[in-house]
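Anyone up for a design puzzle?
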């Protein structure tokens, strides 16, 4: 029966979609202990973005959690990437059924950097440019809604009291490195861990580090002695 099983809810980021986290979803689904769920946020449809706002994104996350609770799940784990990390902390502060969260390059701040022409020839800057180009293809109104969510997001951290794993990529093109420290210091739980993912980009779950990260997340969700032996400052 579902009430004896655990649900994992995976939330993608701003301008993202389910495909960004596809490897992790499939990896976790191989474990019979969990039922894995994910849904596209309002206004997100691959590379097309329609009218939506931060209130609709929050409401969507709430509805997904409530649907799991109504289906009998008493233990829910939430994994959020980028803006999905903000939404994970938001719902974690509202629902006691959420027992663990994973924040992957959570967008509690973002870089505002303009590329120089000469930098575009550099492969790392080229990746950065493509990612920001995707963000900037949204309408100014949609992007403004994202900035609103970032501004209010730090209020959510004090409401989190469940176990929390914070992952940050050392080569994140969007989120400043020190954001991981801000989250760690402000989140309101003693059971928290901050781990660097070496040489990984913002979209780490679709990078060549996705296998290592997925295994590390699974160990955290399983907990117990194996997790305590596996805790690392960097992977």
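Challenge accepted. My sequence:
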């Amino acid at each position: 029966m579902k009430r004896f099983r655990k649900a994992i809810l995976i939330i993608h980021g701003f301008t993202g979609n389910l495909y960004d986290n596809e490897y992790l979803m499939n990896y976790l689904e191989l474990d019979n202990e969990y039922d894995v769920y994910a849904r596209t946020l309002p206004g997100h449809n691959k590379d097309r973005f329609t009218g939506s706002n931060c209130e609709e994104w929050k409401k969507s996350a709430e509805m997904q959690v409530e649907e799991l609770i109504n289906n009998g799940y008493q233990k829910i784990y939430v994994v959020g990437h980028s803006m999905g990390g903000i939404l994970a902390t938001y719902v974690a502060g509202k629902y006691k059924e959420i027992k663990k969260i994973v924040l992957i390059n959570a967008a509690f701040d973002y870089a505002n950097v303009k590329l120089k022409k000469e930098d575009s020839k550099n492969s790392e800057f080229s990746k950065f440019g493509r990612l920001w180009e995707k963000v900037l293809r949204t309408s100014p109104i949609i992007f403004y809604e994202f900035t609103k969510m970032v501004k209010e997001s730090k209020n959510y951290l004090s409401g989190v009291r469940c176990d929390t794993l914070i992952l940050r990529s050392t080569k994140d093109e969007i989120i400043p490195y020190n954001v991981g420290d801000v989250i760690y210091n402000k989140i309101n739980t003693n059971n928290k861990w901050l781990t660097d993912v070496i040489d990984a980009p913002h979209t780490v779950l679709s990078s060549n580090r996705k296998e290592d990260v997925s295994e590390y997340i699974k160990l955290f969700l399983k907990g117990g002695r194996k997790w305590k032996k596996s805790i690392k400052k960097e992977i």
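A detail worth pointing out: The CA atoms of residues 131 and 138 lie 12 Å apart.
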